Amino acid sequence: MKGVIKAWLAALVLLLSASAVARPVVVELFTSQGCSSCPPADVLLGELARKPDIIALAYHVDYWDEEGFKDRFSMPEATERQRGYVRRLSRSGAFTPQIVVSGDTSVLGSNRTEVRKAIAGDRDALAIELSKAGGNLQIQFLEAWRESMDVYLVSYLAEATDKISSGENARRTLKHFNVVRSIKRLGTWNGKPQQMVAKLATLPNDATSVAVILQRKNHGAIAGAATLALR
């Protein structure tokens, strides 16, 4: 009998812990300093980044770098992630500014009405808890689910300001928010409460925060996410 009560109490603690953890919506913007229609989307992302129930991330793609200006934040990994969404969401091709909400809804990144409508949608939200221990990031998955999923670690820089020297935004000063500096697939979550560990020393020096994203296979819908400030 004592064993049953002990197990029940442990389950209750886990449930209460999970319910206390924030379950934010992930908003991913695909943008570029070389794109003249992107600054309004960058501003919108900055507004969303201030909301506690949203994890807003800006991925600077590299295909605009061929147009005469090199975006210092561009990464091939950002372009590859966008292409994964293009394949999954049956889009005819990549575009900027594009916002993908929770991995399942694509909208024009500067369309405030459509972005807010997408954010308001009802989705799965599994609890994840992040903490630092020594030089490691500890990732705790608090709930069970019926399927395994990919786990991504994203590092990002909270704010940056650049004066653009050439290209479509020449002579403009652009402000960016939550600029992704690295994205890495950590492995597969097995659908059960468990812990993963990642070394913080492998992250770019200019990253100020990290986000962990729990996502269905092949760039599917995002089922959980959490963020943690590094400093």
The geometry reads as globular
How far apart lie the N and C ends?
A: 47 Å
Structural class: alpha+beta
Strand content: 35-45%
How many domains make up the coordinates?
A: 1
**Main sheet summary:** 4 strands, mixed
Order of helices and strands: HEHEHEEHEEEEEEE
Question: What value does the Rg take, in angstroms?
Answer: 19 Å
Query: What number is the mean pLDDT?
Result: 90
Q: Report the strand count.
A: 11
Q: State the helix count.
A: 4
Q: Helicity range of the residues? A: 10-25%
Low-confidence stretches: 4-21
Major β-sheet strand ordering: 2-1-3-4
Task: List the topology elements.
Elements: H1 2-20, E1 25-31, H2 39-49, E2 54-60, H3 76-88, E3 98-101, E4 105-108, H4 112-119, E5 128-133, E6 136-141, E7 149-163, E8 173-189, E9 194-199, E10 209-215, E11 222-229
Parallel strand pairs: 1-2
Antiparallel strand pairs: 1-3, 3-4, 5-6, 6-9, 7-8, 7-10, 10-11
Give structural notes.
This protein is α+β, with helices and mostly antiparallel strands and 231 residues long. It contains 4 helices and 11 strands; from the N terminus they run αβαβαββαβββββββ. It is globular, with a radius of gyration of 19 Å. The relative contact order is 0.20.
